[in-house]
Amino acid sequence: MSAPVSGGREGSLDAPTRHPLDWKNPAFYDEAALEKELTRVFDICHGCRRCFSLCNSFPTLFDAVDGSSTGELDGVDRKVYWEVVDHCYLCDMCFMTKCPYVPPHPWNVDFPHLMLRAKAVHARKEGIGFRNKLLASTDAVGAIAGIPVVVEVVNAVNASTVGRKLLDATLGVHPEAPIPKYYANTARKRLKELVGTTAQAGGHDSLVRSEAAAGAANVPLAATGSAPVVARTDAPRPPTPAASGVGQPPAKETAAQKLARLDAAAAADAARESGEGLRHAASAAAPNLVATPRKETAAEKLARLEAMASGMESVSASPPESALGSTPRASGAATSNSAAAGRAITGRVALFTTCYGNRNEPDLDVDLVKVFQHNGIEVRLVAKEECCGMPKLELGDLESVARHKDANIPQLMKVIRDGYDIVAPIPSCVLMFKQELPLMFPDDADVRTVQSRIFDPFEYLMLRHRAGLLKTDFKQSLGKVSYHVPCHLRVQNIGLKTRDVLKLVPDTTVDVIERCSGHNGTYAVKKEFRAASVKIGRPVMTRVENAQPAYYTSDCPMAGHQIESGMKDAKPPTHPLKLLRIAYGL
Ligand code: SF4
Ligand code: SF4
């Protein structure tokens, strides 16, 4: 085996960093350069083999090497390279939990990004095909399938043996793969009356004040990056006391708000004195996707202390609290999620319902709203939303990802300017805004602002809990819960917040399962990958079966159904938000 890179040492002791995806550079699509890079990295992986159990990409590669005439990579047919690429569903687990050769190690291995580049090259050259296009068009398909009357036909066909055979024959959807039901009465329809949209909610005069005070009325809020409170005098507003969910700004400024406003003004002054406008301050605070995490500035420290003083919670930049083995490393995610460090929450959230939540499991969004409202958090719907783009990303269709981003980011910026944080109930969609878009658009200040203001729902609830603002008036225990942690939540690097919240419920034990369910976007439904997906998920399914829990659950509803599909006579999964609603008796 040829030495892949000379001068490298075994493993890295430095904090991992993540380079932005250089997808706008024509060289990114150079096929010869791609093949050279695939060969270089595959050779490193062949020598390492730590990732053999994560997915089917690595076994495909290693089996091909071991079965080749030379026993080395040079004996492997190049078409195997594309099989390795096809088996990768971009879960990021190899980068986040295993690889000692990620940057700044000189070997510079970013396996998921290399797979994404290969998918993008393939998509540009060959197109993505009708089936992939259809399966990834979650919003368009959902809009058609969700039309009243049509929805009954679609659901009936999808539930019938004949219909599944048809799907198999026409789209290559495996007959036993779980496929979602569609609803005409979407989450957005159900919730519009209950909570309204952000278009119906006025902005906050305190925001206007803070922008004016900073002399930067037309710049993005300094919620951007890791110094979010510089211009967020709205941020420390205590939660709406009533659980109605339709809160009004308090008539009189509280002591905490006053403290926050003064501190924000001081922070803005500090930024000005340092010779930087807010935009510069914000971009300096935003994640440096290449460099290692930098030191906290004086302004950021002030902002953090101010947030703490006003009874709010800052997200710690320290490692996550996962009690179990192969959790993502803190500094690895910090390279892409460092904007999250030090951020504070407002107690007012705009809900990005997601395509799946909106049309396939509307209860998911309703449960989130009920639980948040119970905890005095004002909730509104983001006025308009499109697919986050994750299904397109997984196909390497980066231009479509950019189109979704162009539609969503202005909407999300609007809600942030109006003083809302953002939550979404699907981990993959949150990850899209927290990590993938910032890596694709590292110079886009708005993308970085959204990155710093979007939260996993349980991450948000735990922040409330740490600030003493989460209700624990539970009416019902949950007993034994088997909890599966989806990969796209693990790589958010926030620790096991769902477990932590569920454990607050009396007489409840949570068995945490940190393994891939095998669902992974459309991977589990495609007939050529179905067997591999079940094999990947089998340890999770077996663990749940053996535990015989009162409930089994996953933050990813699709992963929950994948687990269900691999168990005999299994009852359906219960989403953690539903569990919390049950526990509260809502
Ligand atoms: S990103 Fe996930 S699916 Fe892709 S190679 Fe790494 S572990 Fe496997
Ligand atoms: S991605 Fe890294 S840890 Fe995984 S097999 Fe390759 S070199 Fe080893």
Brief overview, please?
The protein contains 27 helices and seven strands.
Can you offer a commentary on this structure?
- This protein is mainly α.
- The chain has 4 domains: 26-126; 130-182, no CATH class; 195-466, no CATH class; 479-584, Rossmann fold (3-Layer(aba) Sandwich), CATH 3.40.50.
- The protein is built from 27 helices and 7 strands.
- The protein has a 4-stranded parallel β-sheet, with helices on both faces. Strands 6-5-7 form a 3-stranded parallel β-sheet.
- The longest helix is centred in the last third of the chain and has 21 residues, at 527-547.
- The radius of gyration is 24 Å and the shape is globular.
- Residues 202-342 have low confidence and may be disordered.
- One iron/sulfur cluster binds at residues 44-45, 48-51, 58, 94, 98-99, 101, 109, 111.
- Residues 44-45, 48-51, 58, 94, 98-99, 101, 109, 111 line the site of one iron/sulfur cluster.
Number of separate helices: 27
Supply the helix-strand structural class. mainly alpha
Approximately how much helix is present in the residues? 40-55%
Strand order of the largest sheet: 2-1-3-4
Termini distance? 62 Å
β-strand number: 7
Features:
single chain; 586 residues; mainly alpha; 4 domains; four-stranded parallel sheet; 49% helix; 5% strand; globular; binds iron/sulfur cluster
Detail the topology: elements first, then pairings:
Elements: H1 31-48, H2 57-67, H3 78-87, H4 93-98, H5 111-126, H6 130-136, H7 138-145, H8 150-159, H9 161-171, H10 187-195, H11 205-213, H12 255-273, H13 278-285, H14 298-309, H15 330-337, E1 348-351, H16 355-359, H17 362-374, E2 378-381, H18 390-393, H19 398-417, E3 421-423, H20 427-440, H21 445-453, E4 454-455, H22 457-466, E5 479-484, H23 487-490, H24 497-502, E6 508-513, H25 527-547, E7 551-554, H26 557-565, H27 576-584
Parallel strand pairs: 1-2, 1-3, 3-4, 5-6, 5-7
